[in-house]
Amino acid sequence: MQGFRRRMTAAPSTGQSLVIDAVTQRYGAFFAVDHVSLDIKAGELVALLGPSGCGKTTLLRIIAGFILQSEGHVVIGDRLMDGLPPNRREVGIVFQNYALFPHMTIADNIAYGLAARGVAADEQKTRVKDMLALIKLDHIADRFPKQLSGGQQQRVALARALAVKPNILLLDEPFAALDKNLRLDMQIEIKRIQRLAGTTAVLVTHDQEEALSMADRVAVLNAGRLEQYAPPTEVYDAPKSLFVNTFVGTANTLPGKVVALNGEATVALDIGGDIKTRAPTVPVAVGDRVTVCMRPEHLRLADSGEGIAGIVEMGLPLGPSIVHEVRTADGRALKVTEPRAAGAQPRAPGSAVRVRTVGANVISIFPAAAA
After folding, report:
1. Strands of 192-320, DSSP E
2. What is the pTM of this model?
3. Which of 163, 90, 91, 168 is nearest to 127 (CA)?
4. CATH for 18-90+165-242, among 3.40.50.300, 3.30.1440.10, 3.30.420.40, 3.40.50.2000?
5. 127 phi and psi, to 5 degrees?
6. I want to staple 73 with a disulfide (CB 3.0 to 4.6 A). Which of 1, 8, 202, 368 is the partner?
7. Cα–Cα distance between 191 and 16 in angstroms, integer?
């Protein structure tokens, strides 16, 4: 790897950096991972986000050492991991099914990895006690996994992974088996524990809300390629591709043609009328066909005047907001999310409305060929 010099020095127990340098995994002519590069800082939690088959789990297995990549390098701290087996990488893994030993108590499950590494008995007891306090289960240390809730089992799996002081903690869809309310509680809990332990973590998920709420940075993958790597707010507010804009969050899309570029863009929509958007993040020229992306919360409804003409098909009051579905003249459905004032009701189905944007700075465009 260019600029990297291998130094076999002792690594700190937690908070190691992780570099994924142009990692590629091929299966014949198929690229499961296609030249992905990530620089993950020590103590950072990074989410690998994408749909099924995008390469995120393959990349996680490469980091762990379960798969030897076709090309590229994996560096933890200042150590090149290429060719090292999993047991020499000092990586902890929390699986989706937790994989706890049913015949062992909570304390024994946490101690298992320490015993396997030959850690002295006294040190094992101290470390297990610390981990039990960290996950707040020290009062039930003698219980067995079958006596625990799903959330408690997850915390034990996390403690077992952290007990050996891994350089990197890998979380493989750890919340998938939990119900919605427990999932949110555990996301907060895992984030708290990861911060307290100071461990660098990589989370694999297909759940955008999970990635945006937990991660310091999000790597969005699509068909093996890295589409964007940035903080959650940047991924949501300033997507770099049409895929990111439509996969992360909700987006309405409309086709059109660029008619002016002067800091912002002006697009003539196929359904009629012009719309102003922010400056394109990818090269486009006047006359190019583009796709306009508008998030529902960046739209408002009016009874008349400027805007995209449509008919309200449905309105849903969702606590502090109202979501309307508006059908345009060409049959497209636009979702519009507006704040709901006290006592406000959705517009009646069949109402004629105009859909307006809250401003050009929140509307994105991408080349139509990318759709």
Report:
1. 200-205, 217-222, 225-230, 252-262, 264-269, 274-277, 289-294, 299-302, 308-318
2. 0.84
3. 163
4. 3.40.50.300
5. -65, -40
6. 1
7. 17
